[in-house]
Amino acid sequence: METHADLGAFLRSRRALLRPEDAGLPAYGSSRRRVPGLRREELAQLAGVSAGYYTRLEQGQSPNASDSVLDAVARVLRLDDDERAHLYSLARPRPKAPHREAEPERVRPGVRNMIRSFADVPALVLGRFGDVLDWNRAAHALLAGHLDIGSPDRPGDRPNIARLVFLDPRTRELYGAGDGGWARKARATVADLRLIAGRFPDDPGLTRLVGELTAASAEFAELWAAHAVGDCGTDTRTYHHPKAGTMTLMVEFMALPNDEGQRVAVYGAEPGSASEAALPRLLAV
């Protein structure tokens, strides 16, 4: 992935979503506009910069853009906090490190012991690009009981959340049909991966993952091209488990400050609910 190209594509995608009237500009009718959304010149005017400067920014030729310029662009584009952080990551990429394969990610023993202690509450550790680094028995049973429970211990065999969502039919069935089911999970997965890509733009492992998913899944390719950005946080989803039944679970993601990019995910149910009563069945099947 080329950071400069990603910056331009991200800004163009956000411009396309904003109607002139939304930004306080007169609308002259769609027949007079060859492209949707704001023009570069209009955005530059609203942000208080020259059209030439904004064009260079969109082309990745302004590596020293000030906070005030980036904030002004974010304000005009109505970026949320995740999108604003992504803009900064793309506009100010990290210096390129020497090209070498990173060591496989590892889970610290204390973190491993913590997620195993949750018993029948599903919990797992995700690596920086969504690889499952470790899970307890309940998380394995909930998300991928058809896979070897020991696969996270083998770096070459580790399940990856994005691969499961887009390439595994059983995962698609787990989230269910409809816009609020698998489709919603797919959008969130790509938005999260986009945010991560801005933080690790030159990682060869991430480049391979995105390339693989783009080639194998037209749905992924379409969502990736849309440049939506979002961070996985607290969420509630309904799971249609083939043996434990239908459960509505809340998931909390917690970053591990001592392990760059790693997150713990814990799934819980509303106290006293049917979903809470169903959780023990994950380990009984």
Walk me through this protein's architecture:
The chain is an alpha+beta fold and 285 residues long. The protein has 2 domains: 3-91, Orthogonal Bundle (434 Repressor (Amino-terminal Domain)); 109-284, Beta-Lactamase (2-Layer Sandwich), CATH 3.30.450.180. It has 14 helices and 5 strands. A 5-stranded antiparallel beta sheet has the order 2-1-5-4-3, with helices on both faces. Helix 8 packs antiparallel against helix 10 (182-199). The longest helix is centred in the C-terminal third of the chain and has 18 residues, at 182-199. It is elongated and about 65 Å long.
Essential attributes:
11% strand, 14 helices, 434 Repressor (Amino-terminal Domain), 5 strands, 285 residues, Beta-Lactamase, five-stranded antiparallel β-sheet
Write down the domain tally: 2
What is the average per-residue confidence, as pLDDT, rounded to a whole number? 89
Tell me the CATH architecture of the largest domain: 2-Layer Sandwich
> Strand-residue fraction?
5-15%
- In which order are the strands of the major sheet placed? 2-1-5-4-3
Largest sheet: 5 strands, antiparallel
In N-to-C order, the SSE pattern is HHHHHHEEHHHHHHEEEHH
Distance between the termini: 43 Å
The Rg value, from CA coordinates, equals 21 Å
Describe the global form.
elongated
